[in-house]
Design goal:
Layout: E1 3-4, H1 7-11, E2 16-18, E3 28-32, H2 34-39, H3 48-54, E4 63-65, E5 68-71, E6 74-78, E7 84-90, E8 97-102, E9 117-118, H4 119-135, E10 141-153, E11 157-167, H5 173-181, H6 185-196, H7 206-231, E12 233-234, E13 256-257, H8 281-300, H9 303-310, H10 313-328, H11 338-352, H12 356-365, H13 381-398, H14 402-412, H15 420-431, H16 436-446
Length: 475
Amino acid sequence: MNVVPTPLATLGPPFAEQVPTTPLPAPYWVAWNGGLAQTLGLSSIPSLEYLDILAGQTTKPAYCSVYAGHQFGYWAGQLGDGRAHSLGQLKGTLDSWEIQLKGAGPTPFSRRGDGRAVLRSSIREYLASEAMAGLGIPTTRALAITGSNLTIWREQPETAAIVTRLAPSFIRFGHFEHFAAQGDEAALHQLVHAVTAHDPLLSHNTAHAALTLLTQATLRTAELIACWQAVGFCHGVLNTDNMSILGLTLDYGPFGFMDRYIGTHVCNHSDTHGRYAYDQQPHVGLWNCSILAQSLQSLIRDDTAIEGILSQYGPHYRKAWLQRFSAKLGLMSENSDNASLILSLLTLMEREKVDFTRFFRALSSDDPRSTPPLEKLFKSSGDFVAWWAIYEQRLEQDNTSVDECRQRLLQVNPKYVLRNHLAELTIRSARQGDFTMIDTLKQVLDSPYEEHPDHEEWAADPPPWSQQLSISCSS
């Protein structure tokens, strides 16, 4: 693999430290993303050379960066790459990709941790990264999982693994928080310029670049969370250190796609107060952007300009949310009544405990101009019929054919998402040494809007036992 140091790594201390990886003993392949590998100029077939490198056996220097953050609303102080080693930027492709090993041993920022990741969490991150890419949502990517029989202790003994993930940059809100807390304005200048290497929208005039960076991060965050809401995705731990400066979905821990629609759904059982519930994600996104704004205040030096940028978040989010949910209903023309129509549907879905993904896909599969069989998803069908009558009137205003409407719906309403029980079944098979479901499920999630007749059961109602699954930050 032809890699060079990232812009952040080239800054050296105090931004990043050169840290050796701790290789997995007796590593083996768990997963290899051949399609992504090809786009990166790598072989679609995994090799022993790749296995050694991605299991941490590399002679090239690896780097870990320092950052800080607010966790569950409280200042946590210095954090950093506690179990992520950057191998550098992968060259030879049209785009620039930083390649990281997550789980390759302790670093100076491990905070007494072992720097390892377990097979369970590595499978979840690998599948989630690629599922989000399949949905067309900005995200980090996953190239591979290497495993080992090395025992790692979490709540119980598990086996170790390393997930190889990629992004144009892994710079987070927390990188800026760290140096702002130290009052290190020069370091903040350097960080802003490190981001410019990944974002041509940023100017090389530092004051203007900081203002543009905040603007882009704020708008991208609003757009990203609107994307999440439209597919029922909950991140689970939206701390500022888990926020990408480029607006990518970053750090897949206790995430979850909703089954039944519940506005207050909490996917992380450690989130006892529901700070990161589904319906709170848009508000937390703005809160996190305000923390980033505070971190950049010494560079921008214009509180009015900062307030103006943050004030764009709400309107931008609401517009993006309305566009996405209108599209999910096949509504083309802009209408002030769209929002109330959508909200009344979501209220009805929540009351009737209707599956989020299945409802919208069923809507896509039936004639959107007549009361469909999806009526059976509602216990009080009369309420749904009343809603449908209003919906039908709105469709008539667009004056498009049934086939055109249905094709639009099929392109925005996925049939398959990474439900918790699917991830759990994959993990159970992998623990028995069978990794085939990882590849098969990934292939389905790569094209979630298409039909996959051999895997209809993965689009069905989740089994009752899945309601007992408990997802936490442990990995």
